[in-house]
Amino acid sequence: MGNSYAGQLHSTRFEEVLHSSIEASLRSNTVVPRPVFSQLYLEAEHQPSTQNGRAENEEDEEEDGSESNSPPLPYQMKPPPEGSCTTDGFCQAGKDLRLGSMATDCLEVPPGFQLVGAKSPGAPEHILVCAVDRRFLPDERGRNALLGFAGNCMGCGEKGFRYFTEFSNHINLKLTTQPKKQKHLKYHLHRNAQGHLLRGPLIRWRGAEARVRHTAAVVPVAPNGGDDHANAPPPTATHTHGGTHTHSGTHTGTHTHMGAGGPALNTANCTDPVPPLQAAENPHGLTNGNHHCPPSQQTLQQSGPATYGRPSVIGTITNAGPPKKRHKGWSPESSAAGDAGAKTTSTAAPGTRADNGGPGSVSQGSSPPLAAGESVTVPDFLIQTCKLQPVIFRGHGKLPALCGNSGEVLVSPLLQACYRNSQALPRLYEQYGATPIQPLSTEMQILLTVYYLVQLGPHQMPLIEDLEQIFMRSWRESHLTEIRQYPQTHPHTHTLPPLPAGLDQPLTPTQLPWLARLAASSSGEGVVVLDGASSLAEGLEEVFHRLMEGRLAQSSYVVIICMGKSQTLQSCVVVTGKQQCRALAESMVTPIENVKQISYEIYSGMTAELRAFFNSLGPDEDLDGLLEKASVESRSSATSLASTQDSPEDSPKPACTEYRVEWHEIRAIQLAVARKLLSHVCAIADSSTQNLDLGSFDKVEFLICVPPSEVAFQQVILHLCNSGVLHELGLEQEGLSLQQLEQFVVKLDQEAVGRIEALTQKAKMNPYTLFILVHDHAHWDLSSSHYSSAGSREGLVDSLLNCRQVHEAPNILTLHVTSFPFALQTQYTRISPYNEIHWPSSFSNDVDLYHEKTKYFGISELLESTRSGAGLPLLRFDSSFENMAAVVEERFPKLHSAVIRTQLLVQHYSVALMVAAGQSHLQKHTSVETLEIVQCLLSAAQRCPSNHGHMVLLRVASPALALVAQQRLAHVRDKLGFQNRFEVVLGNPSSALSLGKHFLEQLKVWMKVQDPDWKPRTYLELEALPCILILAGADPLGESLPRSLKYCDLRVISSAYLQRTPLEQELGLAAYLVKVGPREGPGRPNTASDLSESDPDKLSSTDNEEEELAAQAPSQPLPDARDPVRVSRPGPEADPSTTTQRRPSKSTSSGSGGSSASTRASTPRQRCSWARNLNRPPVVLLPRAVYQVLTAPDASGLPKSTALLPHPSVEWASSFRPLLSKIMTCTEQSLYYRQWTVPKPAHMDSSNRAPEGRSDNFHPRRLLLSGPPQVGKTGAYLQFLGILSRMLIRLMEVDIYDEEDINCSDKLPVLPQQQVGVSWPSTEVMRSIPFDYTIHDPKYEGISPIYSPDYTPSEEGNPRRQEDVYLRRRTSRIKLSKYAAYNTYHHCEQCHQYMGFNPRYQLYESTLHTFTFSHLLLGEEIQLYFIIPKSKEHHFAFSQSGGQLESLRLPLVSDWNPDCIKSPIFTPTTGRHEHGLFNLYHAMDGASHLHILVVKEYEMAVYKKYWPNHIMLVLPTTFNGAGIGAAHFLIKELSYHNLELERSRRVEHGSRPHDVWPFIILADDSCVMWNALDVDPKSGSMGTERNVSLKQVLQHMESCADITQYGLCGLRKWSSRHGNQTGGAGGAGAGGRHGNHGNRRHEPFSRGHLHDFLLLNVDLTQNVQYNQNRFTCDDVDFNLRAHSAGLLVCRFNNFSVMKKQITIGGYRTFIVKTKMTDVPTTVQPSQYICAPDSKHPFLSTPAQLLLEKYLQHTSQRLFPLSARTYRHPVLSVDCYLNLGPEVTVCFVSSRPHSINLSTNGLLFGGLLLYFCDTFVTPGFLKKFHFLKGATLCVICPNRSALRQTVVRLELEDEWRFRLSDEFQTANAKEDQPLFFLTGKHI
Q1: What integer pLDDT is reported at residue 1453 of this predicted model?
Q2: Using CB atoms within 10 A as the burial measure, which of 459, 578, 1468, 1777 is most buried?
Q3: What is the spatial order of strands in the sheet that 1027-1031 belongs to?
């Protein structure tokens, strides 16, 4: 029963079609059956039928096929491009296509195109807007539509889609059927009067209107393809010869009753409720295993009213619809199921589950309770007689009681549960319409079951999943017509009379028996149908009778069908096939019970007879006797060799140079996965749920939990040592012993209880440590702790990892790691789908994404090798072994199959070893595959001078059997003298590895191990060791295997548990990473299936030298390892061409040696065979039953294992489920299992039900990493631990500006000596210290130097531009101290209340208050807004009457509170609502303080959102475009106004005005930490610098006795090289060149410029204002004017402030853009100004900023005499403007009594007058002398003021002006440009 090929006629196929034709003839006396050969060939070839009129219009083919009543053709969408959008309603570019979103958009529709609406199955509530060429759309009559398609995407604008398939992929229709424009383009779109885009009429595709209005009508077609007019249409429809059907009137909903009492179905308003669930199902036949279901028995053409409702039952079973849409001769009525109109209506009884197939009553086929005394007696000695234990599947009705020898019969409820689940199918459809839909009838279920059993091969196991899919598919296909009620018509080719509305005739109970017999007849005797019994009891008696008589020896299944006493159908299935019975019997027992049974059979002596049977090789031979004889010969040969061996010991033995170990290397893809893990952890931390506060952790600790396998335990420790993770965590791994390393890994046994409890206690005691709990091999032990017995290991994982302590600990993160995550992806899973990390593919479109040159070779690739035909498949089964096993299992029916198969496998290996030793006559007692394995094992090591070889893996689940196998194979090996040729290793999970001394020494030499006590602890360390590894244990527990694994022998794994996880984890042992060489593409690596000439080790039965050696064994045995001559003699490499000529044809069943085999054997190659095979995956041998399941074709395109139940501990939520699709991503597969599987009660997630009101119950700190086996997940999560630790350290570090002071001079003035160790400055001393005019802050490296006679520049040149300085400023990574300021990303429990964020409470309430004051410079009243949280209102004074804001409360000078800061802190900020350092809770060390954020009006909302508990001062709207100067101006003037108000308020309470505290703090929003410098009190030399709190700094400064006499105070800027500089670069003279003043005395205080952090006395600085127009250098300008006003400026050099580098936002981020486009463009500085009244492109940048930028970049041309010379500066009166680094500025104040530098003898190169007031007079200017040709620049706010200034200052007397020297900033008139005039000195 293989696949049917086109045009080939098989006898079985012919019988089936013949039976179909006969059956259809019997069921209808008017049917005209289709010829049998037409069915065979038409259906096989799928060719379009040639009918009259077919070529008239090919459009019919496109349209008619689009809405067929057949189920959707399987269609697999092309996977979307990497990174594209896949959201329903959006295109792949991520643009919205939904009509509701685009209704008001202005859409550009190309000429000739039209807007239409498409419907997406994924978003049925939305219409997608598309543009389609009108030529491909029908007109209003439904005609004139060209074939093809042309469309554009209206979302992203992509044009030129020429295929609707491509277009449907782009707009994410996500179709499961073939894309058709007729199906998915539904509506015309038009705009209404308001211009809104609305849905219009339906697109009149041909036949669509008929489908909407037509009654249920089907016209049978005569076999000749012509029109059949014999039948008149019913009264509800009219028939026209033109081929079209039109409705004669409005449908009245008439019911048509089919048969007596048959239910009626209203056909009005029926729609198609079938959702696109099955992405890739086979519509033409059911598949099972390897065999293709014969396509039917296609339904025959019927005519006449009497045939309505009599479909072909077999056709319903096998054919999902018409073979192709071109088959116009197919009658749509044939797809209607016979059970649709069943007389018995199924009503769901209470308890029935419609969605998951759970328990529920089935009304169909149910029978009354069994009568008293009705039972079946099981005959004695049933197993002994029949050699099998029958299995009875419950079906319909109650099974009679079994008595007598009932222990030898098993009863299974699986089939009955499958029947019950199928009853739930209609209920999922009923939600789409009010019409009730009938489930499959009992008759149809039984018939489908018979048909399914017929399709099974003689060695195949029945799978409930396959039967469920058959039921679901058949039900859907048979009800498509009923659901739609609109059969497809063919208007142009023939006329179809409609069927009457109603249901088709059901399959009757009287028809079922002979139809079942007819279906079973094609199987020969494989399936027997018993239908003559009056009851199930009688039928079972007949089955037992036939079994005892041996009449069912050739039968595998007996189906009993009978009619119960209540006239209800009853059935059951008795399994009588020997292999099927054994597999089913063992599957009904748990794996643990199976292991116990196997151990009992071994230790109780039940296997003695089996061993004797295997020992006997015939009447005259036994294996032990031959073995003893071979042992004697081996010992005598060894003695003779020892006596004759006289080779000198000093001859050096050649060593293999190709040995290398790769398992300790870290690959790029592992680092990529580690980063994905880290990003998911960060996503948890960044979420609004605040389930993980990464910012509060300063270190990482971890514990890795592994299954109780000693090898897996040591394997993780080995990877841990080589990963470097311990070094990342600060542990010196070289100094850690093995016992110390074991503290990071724990086996999940009873010892783990104490370890987990200790971890939870440690987590509670260390809240600032993040603990990572890694659960490796997480699919192991999913048992619930509630269902585990005391002392049992089951349920331990649940009790440890899901306990309340782990669940609630906020600093424990659980990471599950597994290759098989399916059982963790259920409806009740604890892991969010957003917390899943899937292993990425290393190749995309044959591109190596990670440049590793490796390709993973896993299950899919193994299966692909069976289909490629390029060579011998890597996945095989041993037919000889299977046949022998079947014979032995029949002989010993009471022994477990694992015992028999393991003993047989050991026998095969033992015989193969004896054949290799020279006893070739024993070949018939073993298989070719076993001989191949043994020959390779023995010969490979001889080709390498170091004896490197291969590993052979034998998988034996039972530890007792594994021990028996190991002992037996080691015994045979030693008897044959092969004890030094290969090792037999027992891999028991509960014990460590044990090797012989010889092989242990070999490994030490290869690995260069010097430790005498070393021994391998993992299988990875057995690399290149020739050995047989017998791996025991119920399941593999994550042990990795070396690359020397060449054969993976899984012939004895259980075939009973056919589930995805057990099967794939066994195959995962053979997973491999293949190196992709330069000549090999990623799609075809050089695997073992490639028979290349360069591979002399190719090990097929004929295509390798070892097999040929085996055939020549009698004349030429294998070279003996004891023979030094044979072993050491090198031979030449074989020529590839000769190798090719010698190679016979490929064969997998038998082999014969070539004539050159002995020659090649006598000259072994010296190249290492192990090294040559490193790039070839291992060969896998499977049991035949497992092989057939895996290689069976599957409709989804995936391996068959994916359709199986994913894990024994889960169950399907419903039989109504789609298949997994090949195009599904890992995430989509996860969502599939989350929807369609539920945990069983014993599963640990079964209790994880979602609480009331929630849809899930995910654990917020739980991640799942899944990836294929052996791909490197351990290395990935270890790297994740390392980078997570680095990230936490990174989170605790910031980039601090770390720069040396600039403009330091060699000229050191003599400074007054300050007292050593003084804490506060003295006003007398400070007044004696000269003010340092020079700027030393590195951020001002690119501005104009300020002239000072005490400063001599060290060099003159062209410094870097200011932008370059800003971008390249030097920073250092500094760890945050506990006194740091934080941004909004910091979350900790201590400052939650301070921040105003608390998930348990709402955001803090705030109130908005206005504060109004006036100022002369502003000319009008200023209205400011305060946003004051309720918790901060105590800082303000409000009026008692209306609660109006009156003032900000200020303390008295005499007040002192150790937990309070007196000065209000103002922080102007813009663009840094997330990154600004406004969280001062830790910096203040908890002290009470008043912090006010000064924000612009348009940013008020976003700052309020991020900082809800902070006071906001909102600047007026007019200041939205202003710079930092405006913010400083308003802060200072507001503070002075508030000081006056507070003085008035305090006077009322008895205080003096001068007692009110006059200071405020102006702080930059990037100040992060503060430091204090320890100074030696004796010598005054600097000591260490330490972090201190801002509270300590401010309280120290505020406690100064005469602090009120200082105008402003500040701090030093921190630098890591401060010890190599002067005491602060701010003493007079500003400190010297770098590195020359390390021994200079440190001065604690100095006078100079202050920046970033100021303590400002608003009282003393009343008459010194910040310039509200300034954007840059406003602090420099203010410092100069404050000093010139005679105010004391003091810098505390013992304190320093650290500034964090924040590249986002700030007052520097102003962009120059044109006024026309409002888009940032490149504008040259010369374009910032223009001539007045000129036509110049205006800019939308503020005028002041344009002026400052213009002067900064062009002043060297404006003031050429002052450029690059310090001796002729530009005189700047009353202001400082940055004229660029090449021009020096000399600042003077025009105010009376101001302090200015002496300018005697100084010639100025220019004069700058900026907004001159009345203090500037002609006489004042005449005090200064200028060079001839010096430049004058006068800047005024308007042209009138400019002229008045020139006249008032009498500038024309000494300066020459021209009309062309007047300029303005490039602003429009409404933007108030600034004007300036230039002139030359006469």
Answers
A1: 92
A2: 1777
A3: 875-877, 1179-1182, 1045-1049, 951-955, 1027-1031, 983-987
